[in-house]
Design a protein that fits this description.
Layout: H1 2-18, H2 25-41, H3 54-72, H4 74-77, E1 80-81, E2 84-85, H5 91-108, H6 114-136, H7 141-174
Antiparallel strand pairs: 1-2
Amino acid sequence: MQDKMKELKPEMDAIQNKYKSDKNRESHMNMQQEMMQLYQKHNFNPIASFAGCLPMLIQMPILIAFYWAIRGTQEITGHQFLWFDLGETDILLTILAVVIYFAQFKVSQIGLEPQQKKQMAFIGLISPVMIGIISLNAPAALPLYWAVGGLFIIGQTLISKKIYLAHKKRTSETS
């Protein structure tokens, strides 16, 4: 999505500059119409960029329920997996989850411009720190969930970026 926006940015800026001095409603409507034509020309849906936070909104009630299920279920609280108790705090697993989420942030920055990397730097550091703080006070099952989920996201991101870059390379060679 970010790469697509990067491609469209010069054309979007040109349209915005064209209507920059006009403040009336008709000019605004014309600008919106030209932007929609630009989106259709490039098969771009700007509303889809807002769908990025949807998984987070869906995941929050599940995480809260997961936390209380761990706390309230003796079968989970008393169970062991590998070296840790699922119901007890585990510092090593907390560190692992923080490192994985930091690696996930770094992987998500592959292919971004330096300016975009700078803009995202603070947000990228907040996520691992928050996971570390929450994991220090949570049962080990929660950082285990985050660690495994983070590994899947890293893999998914690497695969999707590889596919996108290969597709982008093919389209640039044909044009």
